[in-house]
């Protein structure tokens, strides 16, 4: 949709809203539909090819208005989470429309999803212990609970532990392991903590860490968590969108061992903020913690519109284009002997730096960001100050990559000329 069509469609939408308000007294006060009415009105899966805008707008009246705002709000969310779950090829356990016990819910952010999963895991752990030892005081259990995450995990994971009142231990990672949590490291920490009288109950695995887009080895970690009755939550806030592409789906292998899984559709799947999609294998574990707020917005409408206007193939093409552009930038970096790549380029993030001191790279970053033509956010990897080039914008093209690299190399030349010889 170009700017001209966007203006035209925007005016049409204003007319639609105005007509609704003008004729609102002709509508019933309470919806005259039975619960479950909506699922039979729309397909079971997202379309492969885009639908027309006209068909999408017609379906607002046909599908949504009969149940507005309830039960349409809840039912469309359930179906959209199933659509997306099928696009990701999640195990049947996570799909609400099957005979499984799981399903999806839209959170505001991945931070909320991590906390919600942690609270549910804490309740489950306490419940299981009390089932075998009813006389044990609950405070004596919660004070010994211990959760785990990677030292590369987002700071929101540690914050979730603070809010939930449980200790959160960081699992060390190494550059030689591509900054991924190893199964043996987790196993060793669990055994040490159990020997010290603690109760391991939750592990937050990360697929696509914030610093370098590293992927924890969930095929190793999952069986360990399952054997120890530890809730495994998977945070794939950024990378999760890419799993709709068959070539990137192997990055999610091991999902069958997880209790919950989350990623931000508002990060890389063209759905406006906020829309953080979360699935759980067993709804009954989460039912008291579906979300933090009691009120709900009609966020699934955004998903419905995007999935239909792009189609699965359109969304896959969008992801692939960003990955190709990241690879183009990586090749430019590798061709310049003054620079080095600091982590594997798997998706749309390139971690790179000037060969030299941290101070030189800090100076380069300041020059880049002060120029206000492009903006980079740094990270520390194994003590090295690293620049991060992230492909984020819908309209980014190859020429933008070349222009950005030209600017970076120009400023790098200036910085290096200022170094003492």
Provide key terms for this protein.
421 residues, alpha/beta, Aspartate Aminotransferase, domain 2, Aspartate Aminotransferase, domain 1, 7-stranded mixed β-sheet, 4-stranded antiparallel β-sheet, decarboxylase, PyrdxlP-dep_Trfase_major, Aromatic-L-amino-acid decarboxylase, EC 4.1.1.28, PyrdxlP-dep_Trfase_small
Structural class: alpha/beta
CATH topology of the domain at 108-288: Aspartate Aminotransferase, domain 2
**How would you name the oligomeric state of the polypeptide chains in this document?**
single chain
Task: Please tell me how large the radius of gyration is.
Answer: 24 Å
Strand order in the largest sheet = 1-7-6-5-4-2-3
The biggest beta sheet, please?
7 strands, mixed
* Shape annotation: flat
Q: Indicate the CATH class of the domain at 108-288.
A: Alpha Beta
Question: What is the annotated CATH architecture of the domain at 108-288?
Answer: 3-Layer(aba) Sandwich
Give a brief rundown of this model.
Its EC number is 4.1.1.28. By secondary structure, this protein is of the alpha/beta class.
